[in-house]
Amino acid sequence: MSIRFFNTMTRSLQEFRPLEPGRVGLYTCGPTVYDYAHIGNFRTYVFEDLLRRHLRFRGYEVLQVMNITDVEDKIIRKTRMEGRPMSEVTAPYIEAFFQDLDCLNIQRAEHYPRATEHVDGMVELIRSLLAQGLAYRSEDGSIYFDISKFPEYGRLAHIQVEDLRSGARVAQDEYDKERAADFALWKAWDEGDGEVFWDRYPDLGKGRPGWHIECSAMSIRYLGNHFDIHTGGVDNIFPHHQNEIAQTEPCTGETFVNYWLHSEHLQVESQKMSKKLGNFFTLRDLLDPQANPSGRAWDPMAVRYLLLGTHYRSRLDFTFKGLQAAMETRQGLLDFLRRCRMQQGTESLDSEVAEEIEATRAAFVAAMDEDLNTPEALAALHALRREIHRRIDERTDLGRASGQAVVDLVLDLDRVLGLRLEEALEEPELLPEETAMIDERQAARKARDFARADRLRDELEARGIRLEDTPQGVTWKIDPSRR
RNA sequence: GGCGAUGUGGCCGAGUGGUCAGGCAAGGGUCUGCAAAACCCUCUACAGCGGUUCGAUUCCGCUCGUCGCCUCCA
């Protein structure tokens, strides 16, 4: 009955035990706001949202922090190119980021600290590292962490320091470091930085913080020296998270984080997303028929379903075919709920249905408890769907109470999945003329004037309203994209 | 070069040492005025080659394929 997570630190599934009973401190690496986030980024944010939702579903109080990196090389480059203050460059992307979170039904974290507002905290850490002799100043005035002073370096990433291939991606002579794997804590100002610098720390000199240090400073500030869970994409394991550990633990004298969770990357058509290949999609691209090759406006909840359809530690190959399937599957779930809601018969809850419901809940929770196994959790939901459909077909009616109980369960589980099922169930209203057309068709059918009835049905179909004749009467489904 | 993943039926995608994942698509059927929806059936999968085992898709080895990280990319 316990929750287990795959901890990158130990490379194994471990029972989750929070530092404080009933409470979870969660740090989730957030966006660098120099551009719109792409769907690969959102895979990670949806994973983190799912983690948060499941923990809350299981009764934990979650304190989540997500940083906003608003000072960084690419941002500075953009700032120089556009000749505007850095905050003006980042503001629209920060706003867009929150819009996209809402769009995907990602719950808000408790805090979204910005790097530029926590430089004091970072400086404090850097001073401590300097004082301990763990950091050094290079000739140009930049300050680097000396990884040779941290014996544990490489433990998270399972990397031997000697194996690091120096200069693999950056010409070593660009840096003034003692060894290639040392990382910047403070970058001395140079002309390329333009107006971006901090000069109120005389002991550090005019410059700006390195990237890794922000997460250490902000997590300490909001979550304390030692907290439960830290997450990010797999690419953050090394060097980012490894560096966070190295620079934080000597300052606090405590273990930094108990559980490291990392989500795998999303690929597009079996390849890494890149602007060059033209397979680079932002969420906005998927919602805009002009901006993606499918030429369709996709429902963000179809995107979310697609992301949930693959376990977070497996690579996910994004395809429009897959997105289509995800959309249809979620639609099938909604159709199922609508049908359940139409059940009218006896008031009492069928005991077998009650059993099915409990079994489904148990299977769903067990799957989620086991390292957030969403595919298996969804399978439990589909098993219920099939079973209940079958029962309704057999008896033509399940009973109002039983139907409602099924709906209640699924909506309850959607607190974890976040597929906006309840909202989607609030059917858009039909126009009075459309209601009249439906009534007219019913009259025509009664009079056995099927030609007329079918004509009316076609007209409604063209308006995005699909009619279905059932024993309980006529129902309809609305395709919002055709209205 | 170092470290590490992974290869499941038309597509996507869980999982397990010995009945079943699940979704989407396809074909057939039931139901229906016709549709739609739903249900039933079918498509009998686990890269290849060895090994361990009474038995392997599941464990081990090798081969092949794909992919990730190795300094600021979720």
Query: How many H/I helical runs?
Result: 15
Radius of gyration over C-alpha positions, nearest whole angstrom: 27 Å
Count of structural domains: 3
Q: Element order, helices and strands? A: EEEHEHHHEEEEHEHEEHHEHHHHHHHEE
Describe this structure in words.
- The chain is an alpha/beta fold.
- It has three domains: 4-263, HUPs (Rossmann fold, 3-Layer(aba) Sandwich), CATH 3.40.50; 288-425, Isoleucyl-tRNA Synthetase, Domain 1, CATH 1.10.730.10; 432-482, no CATH class.
- The chain has 15 helices and 14 strands.
- It has helices at residues 39-57, 73-82, 86-103, 119-131, 212-223, 237-252, 283-287, 300-308, 320-341, 351-369, 374-395, 400-417, 421-425, 432-446, 450-462; strands spanning 4-7, 12-15, 23-28, 61-66, 135-137, 143-145, 183-188, 207-209, 227-233, 257-263, 266-268, 316-318, 465-470, 473-478.
- The strands form five sheets. The chain has a four-stranded parallel sheet, with helices on both faces. Strands 5-6-7-8 form a four-stranded antiparallel sheet.
- A hairpin with a 2-residue loop joins β13 (465-470) and β14.
- α4 (119-131) crosses α6, α5 packs across α6 and α9 (320-341) packs antiparallel against α12 (400-417).
- The longest helix has 22 residues, at 320-341.
- Residues 166-175 have low confidence and may be disordered.
- The protein binds one RNA strand of 74 nucleotides through α1, α6, α9, α11 and α15.
